[in-house]
Amino acid sequence: MKKAERVARVLEAVDTLFPDAECELIHHNAFELLIAVVLSAQTTDKSVNQVTPVLFQKYPTPEALANASLEELEQSLKRIGLYRNKAKNVKCLSQELVERFDGQVPQTREELTSLPGVGRKTANVVLSDAFGVPALAVDTHVERVSKRLKLAKKEDSVLDVERKLCREIPRTRWTRTHHQLIFFGRYFCKATAPSCADCPLFDICTEPLRLKRRPIEV
Questions:
Q1: What are the catalytic residues?
Q2: Which residues participate in the annotated binding site for [4Fe-4S] cluster?
Q3: Considering the domain 3-21+137-204, what is its CATH architecture?
Q4: I need a labelling partner for 43 at 20 to 30 A (CA). Which of 36, 53, 105, 142 fits?
Q5: Residue 207 above 90 pLDDT?
Q6: What are the pLDDT digits (tens) for 70-104?
Q7: Radius of gyration of the chain (CA)
Q8: What is the pLDDT of residue 81?
Q9: Of the given ranges (11-25, 81-95, 197-211), which has the lowest mean pLDDT?
Q10: Are 112 and 101 within 8 A, CB to CB?
């Protein structure tokens, strides 16, 4: 199967399975999204959503979060993984937003990744979901799915995966496909116990479980 045909199969499948996929982190503006994505590293969106409503109620602006005590932030984030490092990062990040960007979330990848705790994936999410800039963020789900479905090679870095996906997928649907691949990896093609028996892409997977497949129309 040619690469273009494989990509078309994948896009058709995720469009059918998850037509309304979108960011599941609770947020109301670019600042809240930025903080939520930073907090989501190595933890689930569900866990982050359990702490951010109270966090943003107490600290609704970069100025408020920048002036919060580190001890209070740690207590607010104690339910999520790596909460001490994350408390430090979001405080420092907020301070830099105030000092360098007048309290506004910057709208370029270079400026976003200059902030504490903000990597390329986080920047891509903020660019696409907060500002409508086409970007395709690669998290653990997108990376796993891309490699299983031969959209990327097993040895590819996260940046390699992003570049390959952006090269093969139309720019106009980068953001949508990003969320759809996350949903596919989070709820269908899981790291362990994936739903191979029901998968419409079973025949092009590199790691299928040896299960009797039930056919699905896509």
A1: 121, 139
A2: 189, 196, 199, 205
A3: Orthogonal Bundle (1.10)
A4: 105
A5: no
A6: 999 999 999 998 999 999 999 999 999 999 999 99
A7: 19
A8: 87
A9: 197-211
A10: no
Residues of the chain with CATH 1.10.1670.10: 3-21+137-204
Would you state the pLDDT for residue 2?
87
Distance CA 81, CA 88 (A): 13
* pLDDT tens digit sequence for 132-174: 999 999 999 999 999 999 999 999 999 999 999 999 999 999 9
Written as six digits, the tokens of 45 are 């969106």
Give the residue range(s) of CATH 1.10.340.30 domains in the chain. 30-131
Q: Which residues are annotated as a binding site?
A: 189, 196, 199, 205
pTM of the prediction? 0.91
Which residue matches tokens 């399975």?
Answer: 17
CB 165 within 8 A of CB 152: yes
Q: Residue 103 CB: number of other CB atoms within 10 A?
A: 14
Q: Could you give the maximum distance between any two Cα atoms of the chain, in Å?
A: 59
- Name the CATH topology of 30-131: Endonuclease III; domain 1 (1.10.340)
- Does residue 213 carry a pLDDT above 60? no
Cα separation, 213 vs 195, in Å, equals 10
**Which tokens go with 170?**
């139309």
Distance (Å, whole) CA 142 – CA 38:
17
Please report the sign of the dihedral spanned by the C-alpha atoms of residue 55, residue 61, residue 62, residue 66: negative
